[in-house]
Each structure stands twice: as structure tokens, then as C-alpha cells.
Automatic annotation (TrEMBL):
It comes from the Eukaryota. One of its GO terms (cellular component) is Golgi membrane. GO terms for molecular function: COPII receptor activity. The keyword Glycoprotein does not apply. PANTHER family: PROTEIN TEX261, TEX261 PROTEIN. This is Protein TEX261.
């Protein structure tokens, strides 16, 4: 098993021993990490209808509910709450989301044209952009109001 997952399991155990976190929160957190490990075993290929992915989403939702209800009743400083959410709840799903939405055609690898080389073919097709950054730029340009610069 990966060193990351072993360290997360150890940290969950330490949270249960030293911080008195509820056992249900610890067990669902470990189950969530196990489902993330199952998804990441065949990483570039993620089937969104697979049992592992559906279980992972279910465990993420349950873990968020348990964490919000725990931190609503027991006081911890805000930095500790953010650290818990970042390390235990958000790190693997966010990394998986970012890596799946990354553009596969960033580097030129093949050419479709016979008369050109790989680099010229890449720059000729560069105007066709698809991905998360393109979506956010489109949303920013179409939804947010434009600010005009004042010339002095």
C-alpha cells in the first residue's frame, strides 16, 4: 500500500487515541481512504459508475457530515479544523479531480499531417482548447461584470 495511505491510517489512529475523535468518524474516514485507494489502483481509468467510485462519493458525503457535526459540538481552533478537512477529506478527491480534468494534449506527441513536424502541428492546432481552465475563463468572461480601466 502507498506510503500516503499508511500515514493517513496512522494519523486516524492517533486522532482517535489522543484527540478522542468519535470512532464512527475514524472508521468512516478509513473506509473513505480505502475506497480512494481502490479507485487509484487503475488510476487513469476511472469508471464513474463503478462500485468503488460510488462508494467513495458516498463516504466523502458521510465523512463531511460527521466532521461538520463533530466540529459543531466540540471546539477546535479554526486552523486545526482546516488542517483536518484538507488532509483527511479534501486532498485525495481534489487531486483526483484535478488530474482527471488536466488536458491530455498539453505536450505535442503525434502529428496528423504528413507535411509538418510535431511542433508546427501542435502550434497550428493550439487554438482549440478544452479543459477546466477554458471553462473557468469562459465563465469569468460571460458571468462576471467587466471592469473598465481608468486612464490618467
Amino acid at each position: 500500500m502507498n506510503l500516503y495511505f499508511q500515514s493517513i491510517f496512522a494519523l486516524y489512529l492517533l486522532l482517535w487515541i489522543f484527540e478522542n475523535f468519535p470512532l464512527s468518524m475514524i472508521l468512516f474516514g478509513i473506509a473513505e481512504q480505502l475506497t480512494h485507494y481502490v479507485i487509484l489502483t487503475n488510476f487513469p481509468f476511472v469508471a464513474f459508475s463503478s462500485i468503488g467510485f460510488v462508494a467513495s462519493v458516498l463516504f466523502v458525503v458521510i465523512n463531511h457530515y460527521l466532521a461538520f457535526s463533530y466540529f459543531a459540538t466540540v471546539y477546535h481552533p479554526f486552523s486545526e479544523v482546516i488542517a483536518f478537512f484538507t488532509l483527511f477529506l479534501w486532498l485525495v478527491p481534489f487531486a483526483l479531480f484535478v488530474s482527471l480534468s488536466a488536458n491530455d494534449n498539453v505536450l505535442p506527441t503525434t502529428t496528423d499531417r504528413i507535411d509538418g513536424d510535431v511542433v508546427s502541428n501542435y502550434f497550428s492546432k493550439r487554438n482549440k482548447k478544452y479543459g477546466l481552465l477554458t471553462f473557468f475563463n469562459y465563465a469569468k468572461e460571460s458571468l462576471l461584470p467587466m471592469r473598465t480601466k481608468k486612464g490618467f
